[in-house]
Amino acid sequence: MSVRLDELDRKILVQLQQDGGLSLDDIAKAVGSSKTPVWNRIRKMRDAGVIKQQTYLLDAEALGFEACFFVLIRTSEHDATWQKAFLKALQDRPEVQEAHRLAGDIDYILKVRVANARAYDVFYQALISEVKVHNVTALLSMEEIKSTTMLPL
To answer: Which ranges does the record mark as transmembrane (predicted)?
Structure first.
């Protein structure tokens, strides 16, 4: 289920993700609005489940990103030029939530959040058009069992 958000809603969410402790004054100034509309929109997004907790984590499915793929990448390229192009391609794609360089048979693993399989294919085609990879395996997560940003302190 997707929640309908406008441009100002999205600007507010960007600010909250960058620093959940910002004051309403700071958020309003950053998004070009005043405090009352900003507070009303934050309240609306909380009520809709877009903001799940005070740490301002966004619910990916509530925003229409219903598919999570883990993408295993093998490459025969390891030079600095290829790595630079690969890292830029990952940085330019908001669908990539995590990227890790691995030891072992797989060179990289990506966590990619998209709306559906078609959106994943668009992501995949764009990625392989920019960087050469030897092999790509995509694994669709059927169920998220545990996800947290909390460290075990």
So the answer is: none
User: In this structure, which CATH number among 3.40.1190.20, 3.90.950.10, 3.40.50.360, 3.30.70.920 belongs to the domain 67-140?
Assistant: 3.30.70.920
In this structure, are strands 96-101 and 108-114 parallel, antiparallel, or unpaired? antiparallel
- 1-63 shares its CATH topology with 67-140: no
| Angstrom distance (rounded) from CA 87 to CA 135 | 17
pLDDT at 17: 83
CATH architecture group of domain 1-63: Orthogonal Bundle (1.10)
Torsion of CA 141, 145, 149, 153, to 10 degrees: -140
Q: Please state, in angstroms and rounded to a whole number, the distance separating the CA atoms of residues 64 and 113.
A: 10
Number of H helices, E strands in the chain: 5, 4
Model pTM above 0.70: no
Indicate the residue type of 25: D
The per-residue pLDDT for range 88-114, each reduced to its tens digit, is 999 999 999 999 999 999 999 999 999
